[in-house]
Design goal:
Number of strands of chain A: 6
Largest sheet of chain B: 7 strands, mixed
Number of helices of chain B: 8
Number of domains of chain B: 1
CATH superfamily of chain B: Glutaredoxin
CATH class of the largest domain in chain A: Mainly Beta
Helix content of chain B: 25-40%
Order of helices and strands of chain A: HHHHHEEEEEHEHH
Largest interface: A-B, 33 and 21 residues
CATH architecture of the largest domain in chain A: Sandwich
Mean pLDDT of chain A: 91
CATH superfamily of the largest domain in chain A: Jelly Rolls
Mean pLDDT of chain B: 90
Distance between the termini of chain A: 78 Å
Strand content of chain B: 15-25%
Strand order of the largest sheet of chain B: 2-1-5-4-3-6-7
Largest sheet of chain A: 6 strands, antiparallel
Radius of gyration of chain A: 27 Å
Radius of gyration of chain B: 16 Å
CATH topology of the largest domain in chain A: Jelly Rolls
Number of strands of chain B: 7
Low-confidence stretches of chain A: none
Low-confidence stretches of chain B: none
Helix content of chain A: 40-55%
Shape of chain A: rod-shaped
Number of domains of chain A: 2
Structural class of chain A: alpha+beta
Oligomer: heterodimer
Structural class of chain B: alpha/beta
Shape of chain B: globular
């Protein structure tokens, strides 16, 4: 009798899980139903080992997915310099998307005179100026200045061509350095994030092309 | 594939605007680089999906001085209906038609029953209809056996790249198209780093 009630309760819970639209709630209800089915298997005589094993597999998969969903839904807390990077360059991204980019990002300081990008050499990274001032130089002559919020190396990132100019630090700088390969990987399987990053880089590129100071 | 398309022939092809005016396709790349998008017919679910994705990204391309021309195979009236349905009202998008398919032939695009009714096409059509793309077909929407494609022509008439869809399921994603457009725009612009 108790077993019958348990079977009905498990199926009713499973039915309710099919009615909810939220995938997290669906999985949680499914786990509850699975727990009842497990009890049914254990109370059966003889014990239903095959059903028990399958229900354990389902519970395991649901457990992993529930953990992922909960992690994804937690509020995002960016550190101050991550927040600054978001504000200056990636405002179009949601904080959760920003986290994905931060996996490929390091924050670095650079002293005056330091060459951040050398003409003819693959920079293998995309830089964002957080503080300080840089100069774009062709054969030693300054052709453009770069400051906070501007990208360095997006032409090389977009075209995979080698830089045609050097980028040199002229005032102490703090930069976000995004590994080019890591960034490509981060956006490869997320069409929305990829579109957002394309929009951001395109806007920066267009802004530089319109600037009277030169083509950085 | 790239070598087969003769841009001079493509540019000399006459197309018709939504308002009924006839113009040479070369106008598309006379003043700026141009992304040429060839639709199948105006009720095509794949083309509807691409156009819907493309519309919000036109300003992005315009900022890089890339023009967007969409070529359809139906009548100007069908093109106007398509424009309204997809809200392609950005004046920077040129919508033209080539009902005799001359522009499609010049762009070396595929036209066959097999490409239209093959299993890949049917599967893609089912998926896209389920997602709400496509519309009821009108007689003047264009040839159903004609496949679409994309070409990027640099200002002055140099073909940078070209993709001829083999079937309904074989098209570049909009992100791939924008990636290539951005790369060409960056290379052409003289950006240094």
């Amino acid at each position: 009798m108790h077993v019958d009630l348990l079977i009905h309760a498990a199926n009713a819970t499973l039915l309710v899980s099919f009615l909810v639209r939220d995938i997290l709630k669906l999985r949680m209800l499914s786990v509850v139903a699975g727990g009842m089915f497990l009890s049914v298997c254990l109370l059966a005589s003889p014990v239903g080992w095959a059903s028990l094993a399958w229900n354990l597999v389902f519970a395991l998969i649901n457990g992993v997915q529930i953990t992922r969903l909960l992690l994804e839904r937690r509020p995002v807390h960016l550190r101050p310099e991550e927040h600054e990077l978001h504000r200056l360059a990636f405002r179009a991204l949601r904080p959760r998307e920003m986290l994905r980019l931060l996996g490929a990002t390091r924050f670095v300081d650079a002293a005056p005179g330091e060459v951040l990008v050398a003409a003819g050499r693959d920079p293998e990274r995309l830089l964002v100026v957080l503080e300080g001032r840089l100069e774009v130089r062709v054969a030693g002559a300054s052709v453009a200045a770069l400051g906070p919020g501007q990208f360095v190396g997006e032409m090389a990132f977009l075209t995979r061509e080698l830089p045609k100019a050097d980028v040199v630090v002229v005032e102490p700088a703090r930069l976000a350095s995004l590994d080019a390969a890591g960034l490509r990987r981060s956006v490869a399987h997320d069409a929305e994030l990829r579109a957002a990053v394309q929009g951001i880089l395109g806007a920066d590129l267009a802004g530089k092309l319109r600037a009277p100071t030169g083509r950085a | 594939m790239l070598a087969r398309v003769d841009v001079a022939v493509l540019g000399a092809t006459l197309v018709t605007g939504v308002d009924g005016t006839t113009l040479g396709l070369a106008r598309a790349w006379a003043e700026r680089d141009c992304l040429l998008v060839f639709l199948r017919h105006f009720a095509c679910p794949s083309c509807s999906a691409l156009a819907a994705e493309l519309a919000p990204r036109v300003p992005e391309l315009a900022a890089l001085d890339v023009g967007v021309w969409i070529v359809g195979a139906g009548s100007p009236e069908a093109a106007a209906a398509f424009r309204t349905r997809l809200r392609l009202d950005d004046p920077r998008v040129e919508l033209v038609v080539s009902p005799d398919l001359a522009a499609y032939r010049a762009a070396e695009l595929v036209r066959s029953r097999r490409s239209t009714y093959g299993p890949r096409s049917l599967w893609a059509a089912l998926r896209l209809y389920a997602l709400g793309h496509g519309a009821k077909r009108r007689p003047d929407d264009g040839d159903v056996t004609q496949q679409g494609g994309v070409a990027f022509v640099l200002r002055g008439g140099v073909l940078a790249w070209h993709h001829a869809n083999r079937d309904l399921g074989d098209h570049l994603s909009l992100n791939d198209i924008v990636d290539r457009a951005l790369a060409r725009a960056a290379a052409r612009s003289g950006a240094l780093v």
